[in-house]
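Reviewer comment 2.1 asked that we show a complete input and output for one of the modelled complexes. We chose the nicotinamide-adenine-dinucleotide case, as it is the one discussed in the main text.
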Amino acid sequence: MNIDDVKIIGVCGAGTMGAGIAQQASINGFTVKVMDVDDAAWDRGLAIITGGLDRMLAKEKITQAQKDEVLGRISYSTDVTSLADVDYVIEAVFEDYEVKKALFEKLEGVCRPEVVFATNTSSISITEIAAATGRPANVVGMHFFNPVPVMKLVEIIPALQTLPEAAALATAVTERLDRVPVPCKDTPGFVVNRILIPMMIDAARVFESGVASAEDIDTAMKLGANLPMGPLELMDFTGVDIAYNVGNVLFEYTREARFSPPTIMRKMVKAGHLGRKTGKGFYDYTQKT
Ligand SMILES: NC(=O)c1ccc[n+]([C@@H]2O[C@H](COP(=O)([O-])OP(=O)(O)OC[C@H]3O[C@@H](n4cnc5c(N)ncnc54)[C@H](O)[C@@H]3O)[C@@H](O)[C@H]2O)c1
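Response of the prediction step:
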């Protein structure tokens, strides 16, 4: 399929990532059909999209008429058959192999055979996902970053079975979404998480061993390594549970100690100290406005 044939994008999952992808696709002129199994998820997803568009409106990046147009191009359903006429699918459902596999099985019966299935998985092998579908040559990894409308990178990950044409289409779709594609092989963590997760885990180890306070570790890394955000601040922002879970999955795949989260992270996850979203992580957010 040619990029000019891609008019309607199906987005599976209306969570944090699905909502961001839907917004970015609609802003760039695609008709977007969102599918989720949970109506409450769509209420949250739509609130994320509306909030994002309102911020753009306030900064005069779009007009009220453009906001209405963007919202008008996005529809929602809990019925997978609503995706029968989509030209391209981006899957962003729970990070669970069985959930993704079951969804792709349903999509296969619904979408035209030439439709490419892109998965936004962070830690599951694209090759494994492709193997679980009836169209492995048309499955590709398309790893977005949160928040999608702000973060320009999309890692493009062909499975071992992916046809070059399918990977080329994912690259072209990424460019039409006004994001920057970076191709990489199907390896645990791809590029960014392979480097970033061990860095965050190492920062937690440094903190755990009492070398320096959280503030001092972050200040040192911001001023000494020229990072925009310290690694512990970043972990609080993205969720200590996310770094912990992704670290454990990468460790399972590779058995490399650098991916194995230290005890402090396990304790924080068990205690619900997940960072900003629970009010407490390496920092306390309950007193801050
Ligand atoms: N959050 C991030 O920073 C981030 C970054 C890159 C990639 N990812 C990946 O993106 C995917 C989604 O992550 P998220 O943070 O948006 O999760 P989320 O929990 O916010 O959203 C997942 C959504 O999927 C829906 N869902 C579950 N099963 C479904 C099904 N069978 N059909 C349709 N919808 C279904 C859920 O109802 C939920 O709304 C995961 O694979 C994750 O690893 C997340």
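Residues 39-58 form the longest helix (20 residues). We note this here for comparison with the apo prediction described in Section 3.2.
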